[in-house]
Write a structure and sequence with these properties.
Keywords: Aminotransferase, Pyridoxal phosphate, Transferase. It contains 13 helices and 15 strands. By secondary structure, the chain is of the alpha/beta class. Strand 1 and strand 2 form a beta hairpin. Bound molecules: 4'-deoxy-4'-aminopyridoxal-5'-phosphate (PMP). 4'-deoxy-4'-aminopyridoxal-5'-phosphate binds next to helix 4.
Length: 449
């Protein structure tokens, strides 16, 4: 392997060099085509090479690319904040722009703590979160993340925020079935709050659908209503980390809308710039802003490139594109079509244990034994093998962790651009099946039945 100077995810592997992208396809320098079935890391929500976005970028860069936020605001940043306020439910009216999902969750944490300080409760500074979750890689965000694999190296530096079990119905931590479920996992939040003492807790943070840490774990129907009630009872804010689920990924602006709840703070990222620019946001409700506005009148967070006009212009153009092409409207039916086609693969590929998710955010969990739900032993490396086989066949899927301990299971995420057509969905499933054929052959050779 030729030596390079770029630190890539795996330093002992070679990566194809991308040449260009169009729609749901990417092409490398050798001209090989890849169907982007994961929108990268659930980011390229409107596909690649969209002319309208390129135009908006050109137009903005001819005006101004950078101003510093304490010196100027900009038209695209003002318009974007207004559009987000109008597109989100309830009183989620205030946006603070950052550059990544990790910064958005880290800012949400700080805003929640500040809210209670301004209201005269300086001790309310802990954030509770769930195991099997991912909220970002910076130390505050990682403190909230219940992702053992990503935490392990830094444990001494992290706060012990994950305290609650995930709503992981396929592997219910309370051994319940959908019929016997009494939302024990939500109830656990109540117990944790009583034990830790709500007077020391500022907020509870959760991903509406658990992405990278759990392969699209989707809660039972009444779960979030219960969680929100428990937060309100204990005077604790509810932060929805919609970095992966926001911007129409599940057919609505926020996935929280499916469960009829309005969070106090929302984190957005990924699909917000759709990969055309780094931009993310912490969206804050009037309720939370009110004591801050009548108190210190500023949020103690920010970055040099916060509310960058170039990135804001991109996110605004992405929102307009989603609207003009009515892209949220078909997400549900496209997702059902895709899910049904994948369901058919179950018959021949018994290692498909669970298919879950919502809209165009689907997760597949793989098991060695479907009856017992026994995961594959780690030596089989099922997730990374499948991801590599798929890529070699021209299909991009996203690797996820799974299992109640957050490390023992195998899962992938399938989340193509919302613009995907029916024909492209069929092609995606054909390529997925070819990948499964190869995986099955390899596993059989290794003695797996
Ligand atoms: N929250 C969630 C739910 C995410 O999925 C991610 C990224 N996978 C993050 C936060 C962190 O975002 P970023 O990688 O942009 O920092």
């Amino acid at each position: 392997m030729e030596r390079t100077y770029l630190i890539k995810p795996a330093l002992d592997e070679e990566y194809p060099i991308v040449s260009y992208g169009k729609g749901v396809y990417l092409y490398d320098l050798d001209g090989k085509q890849y169907l982007d079935a994961s929108s990268g890391a659930v980011t390229a929500n409107i596909g690649h090479g969209v002319e309208e976005i390129i135009e908006a970028m050109k137009e903005q860069s001819e005006k101004i690319s950078f101003v510093y936020r304490s010196q100027f605001s900009s038209e695209p940043a003002e318009k974007l904040a207004e559009k987000i306020a109008l597109s989100t439910p309830g009183d989620l009216n205030w946006s603070f722009f950052v550059n990544s999902g990790s910064e958005a969750t880290e800012t949400a944490m700080k805003v929640a703590i500040q809210y209670w300080q301004e209201k005269g409760f300086p001790l309310k500074s802990k954030i509770l979160s769930r195991w099997v979750s991912y909220h970002g890689i910076t130390l505050g965000a990682l403190s909230m993340s219940g992702h053992p694999g990503r935490r392990s190296r830094f444990v001494p530096l992290l706060a012990d925020f994950p305290n609650v079990s995930p709503p992981y119905c396929y592997r219910c931590p309370f051994n319940q079935t959908p019929e016997s479920c009494k939302y024990e996992c939500a109830q656990e939040l109540d117990t944790a709050l009583s034990r830790i003492g709500p007077e020391s807790v500022a907020a509870f943070i959760a991903e509406p659908i658990v992405g990278a840490a759990g392969g699209c774990i989707t809660p039972p129907k009444g779960y979030y209503k219960k969680v929100k009630e428990i937060c309100e009872t204990h005077n604790v804010l509810f932060i929805a980390d919609e970095v992966m689920t926001g911007f129409g990924r599940t057919g609505t602006m926020l996935a929280s809308e499916h469960w009829g709840i309005i969070p106090d703070i929302v984190c957005l990222g990924k699909g917000m710039g759709a990969g055309y620019a780094p931009i993310a946001a912490t969206v804050v409700s009037e309720k939370v802003m009110e004591p801050i506005m009548s108190g210190s009148k500023q949020i103690m967070s920010g970055h040099t490139l916060s509310a960058n006009p170039q990135s804001a212009a991109v996110a605004l153009a992405v929102m307009e594109y989603l609207e003009n092409n009515n892209l949220f409207a078909d997400v549900d039916s496209k997702g059902i079509y895709l899910k049904n086609l994948i369901e058919k693969l179950r018959v021949q590929y018994p290692f498909i244990g669970d298919i879950r998710g919502k809209g165009l955010l689907l997760g597949l969990e793989f098991v060695e034994d479907r009856e017992t739900k026994q995961s594959f032993s780690k030596e089989f490396n099922v997730t990374s093998r499948l991801v590599k086989i798929a890529q070699s066949l021209g299909l991009l899927v996203y690797p996820a962790s799974a299992g109640l301990d957050g490390t023992s299971g195998d899962a992938i995420i399938i989340a193509p651009p919302l613009t995907i057509t029916k024909r492209e969905i069929e092609e995606l499933v054909r390529l997925l099946e070819s990948s499964m054929v190869q995986l099955k052959q390899e596993l059989v050779k290794q003695g797996v039945k």
